[in-house]
Amino acid sequence: MLKVGILGGGQLGRMLLQAAANYPVETFVMENDPDCPAAHLCHHFTKGDIRNFDDVYNFGRHLNALTIEIESVNEDALEKLENEGVKVYPRAQALRTIKNKIAQKQFYKEHEIPTSAFVITENQQALQLQEAFIPAVHKIAMGGYDGRGVQLIRTKEDLPLGFDAPAVLEKMVNIDKEIAMIIAINEKKETALYPPVDMVFDPHLNLLDYQLSPAMLPEKTLWKLEAIALKVVKELQSPGIFAVELFVDRNGDVFVNETAPRVHNSGHHTIEGNFSSQFDMLWRVMLGYPLGNTKHIMPSAIVNLLGAEGFSGTAQYEGLAEVLKMENIFVHIYGKKQTKPGRKMGHITILGKDRQDLVFSANKIKQTIKVRAL
Ligand code: ADP
């Protein structure tokens, strides 16, 4: 039986393990917190720091394959393991390109992949010189996620809010829709694309609010999205699963925002909504099986369960029983003991016949269930 390790033990790792239970594979997880969401679903848990070279190397060297569920993994250790014959999904060079927002933007530019125009700023002082470039969005090169490394710079008064560290300043796109394209690519370079996902954001929290799949788009826009997302994945030259996030602007032009080289929040609906889920698909890639069917069974929506404002402590899921009375909904609680404002505690998938149906249920769920603390 193949031995496969996951670096990181959050909800993505947990859902990967749920899918792994259907395959002949022995699973390993490394993460610092022995009580993390994935810790109790794997065959073997190792406490360790995914950013530390030795920890990653020692974890991976007895395994056949490795994957990641977060980008902050030490890619030098992954590269060494790759050279020693461990199959790594995604390849270390692809992770290195994506991990640094400057390298990622340069990659798009070099490969003529449409992305918003940008300049690189080394520090706050360099940012101050870019008045002519605003309105723009400042993104820290390393270490930002879930909106924390992103600052909107609408006017010159916002310039001091930018990061005093290497960062990308990119032109603000007049966004009509934010779309995610999930694509799997195997060792033979065969690809499988999921239907596009429409990500609808909460302007206050800057965290994903709800998402709908398949997104409603003119056919021409869909073709552009598919062609661009496929090019991103092919040029990265790595097997694995990728989530390409794109903007469609008010003219129908398409720009790549960013790419994740792993299973992704925007693909959770595929567990119930599509024939082969993004998690199932990654196992197919890693275990050398044929790619799965990405078609949707029914249109679907996701509502994220975020820790409510003003509550920190042992999580309580108020309204859960009420929500479970609804038809065609699937609850996923990630098993995090502690809640805090905005923390991703779970998600609910809704299957429905059309967009109107899905939005109605999504709003009902959002009003009914709250994650609070005792
Ligand atoms: P994160 O990786 O932290 O989620 P993103 O790069 O996805 O950061 O940016 C977060 C949000 O900021 C995006 O979903 C989008 O709404 C907004 N945003 C990012 N870049 C731009 C841009 N160039 N123009 C307009 N809005 C943007």
Secondary structure layout plus pairing:
Layout: E1 2-7, H1 11-20, E2 25-31, E3 44-47, H2 53-60, E4 65-68, H3 75-83, E5 87-89, H4 92-99, H5 101-110, E6 118-121, H6 124-128, E7 136-140, E8 150-153, E9 167-171, E10 175-185, E11 191-193, E12 197-201, E13 208-213, H7 219-236, E14 240-249, E15 254-260, H8 270-273, H9 278-287, E16 300-306, E17 313-318, H10 320-324, E18 329-333, E19 338-339, E20 344-351, H11 355-368, E21 370-373
Parallel strand pairs: 1-2, 1-4, 2-3, 4-5
Antiparallel strand pairs: 6-9, 7-8, 7-9, 10-11, 10-12, 10-14, 12-13, 13-16, 14-15, 16-20, 17-19, 17-21, 18-20
Helix pairs in contact: 1-9, 2-3, 3-4, 4-5
Bound molecules: adenosine-5'-diphosphate (ADP).
Adenosine-5'-diphosphate (ADP) binds next to strand 7, strand 10 and strand 15.
List the main descriptive attributes of the protein structure presented here:
alpha+beta; 374 residues; 3 domains; D-amino Acid Aminotransferase, Chain A, domain 1; binds adenosine-5'-diphosphate; single chain; Rossmann fold; Dna Ligase, domain 1; 21 strands; 5-stranded parallel β-sheet
Can you give me a brief rundown of this structure?
This protein is of the alpha+beta class.
Structure, described:
The protein is α+β, with helices and mostly antiparallel strands. The protein folds into three domains: 2-89, Rossmann fold (3-Layer(aba) Sandwich), CATH 3.40.50; 117-171, ATP-grasp fold, A domain (Dna Ligase, domain 1, 2-Layer Sandwich), CATH 3.30.1490; 175-373, D-amino Acid Aminotransferase, Chain A, domain 1. The chain contains eleven helices and 21 strands. The strands form four sheets. Strands 10, 11, 12, 13, 14, 15, 16, 18 and 20 form a nine-stranded antiparallel β-sheet that branches. Strands 3-2-1-4-5 form a five-stranded parallel β-sheet, with helices on both faces. A four-stranded antiparallel β-sheet has the order 6-9-7-8. The chain is globular, with a radius of gyration of 20 Å. The N and C termini lie far apart (44 Å). The model has no long low-confidence stretch (mean pLDDT 96).
